Amino acid sequence: MSEPKKDRLKMAEKELKRTLGFWDVFLFGVGGVVGAGIYAIIGQAAALRRNMLWVSFIIAAAVALLTGLSYAEFVSRLPDAGGSYEYIKQSFGPKTALGMSIFITFTGVVAAAAIAISFADYLGRLVNIPASIMVIAIIALMAFFNIIGAKYSSYYNAFATIVTLLGLALVVGVSLPEIGSVKLLETTDKGWIGILAGEL
Questions:
Q1: What phi, psi does 79 have (nearest 5°)?
Q2: pLDDT value, residue 104
Q3: CA end-to-end span of the chain, whole Å?
Q4: pLDDT (tens digit, 9 = 90+) per residue, 108-165?
Q5: Sign of CA dihedral 16, 21, 23, 26
Q6: What are the b/e assignments for 176-197, b being 16+ CB within 10 Å?
Q7: Which of 86, 117, 123, 179 has minimal Cβ neighbours within 10 Å of its Cβ?
């Protein structure tokens, strides 16, 4: 066997094995869009915007749509693995990409922490466990699923996403009889500032 072929075989052996399929990635995307945080922040957003909270959701949906279309354009032009890092590197260079990847990492850390804190707050109303212990336990559990492998992490994500969607469907179903009972155009003294704050 020639040397180039041997080198290619060695490289193939060192490549990462593909363990995630279409549905794994699909549910990961849906879970990222919906997010467990929707249960944690919906009350705060409603307090800011009340009956016109739906406007905040429309604005957020429009921003999410534009973001998705932007990523679709990047994928079609730069079909390389690396996600946001690769797109920034191709557009602005590796140094800028490195700096932005650090911020992206911080974003993930803050998001996970916010969800853990919110979940601990809800769970603390049912069980008498210190919030700090619950937050640490939730973060450790999420880390565990990521450490044991992408496939097992995907199983957990799929389960969490399905539970989240079923919960939202239940909320919508329970709320259907109340349609028309509130004034959806009723404003508060916060005006557009409240709408934008609710969207954020």
A1: -80, 55
A2: 84
A3: 60
A4: 788 778 778 877 877 888 888 888 888 898 888 888 887 887 788 888 888 888 888 8
A5: positive
A6: eeeeeeeeeeeeeeeeeebbee
A7: 179
Q: Which residue intervals of the chain are DSSP H helices?
A: 3-14, 22-34, 37-49, 53-77, 83-92, 94-123, 131-147, 150-175, 191-199
Query: Two tokens at 70?
Result: 């932007």
Alpha-carbon gap, residue 88 to 26, rounded angstroms: 24
Query: In 10 A of CB 118, how many CB atoms?
Result: 19
**Better-predicted residue by pLDDT, 44 or 12:** 44
Q: Give the global pTM.
A: 0.62
Report the candidate in 26, 20, 68 with the shortest Cα–Cα distance to residue 161: 26
Long-range contact list for 147-152, CB < 8 A, 24+ apart?
149/19, 150/19, 150/20, 151/19, 151/20, 151/24
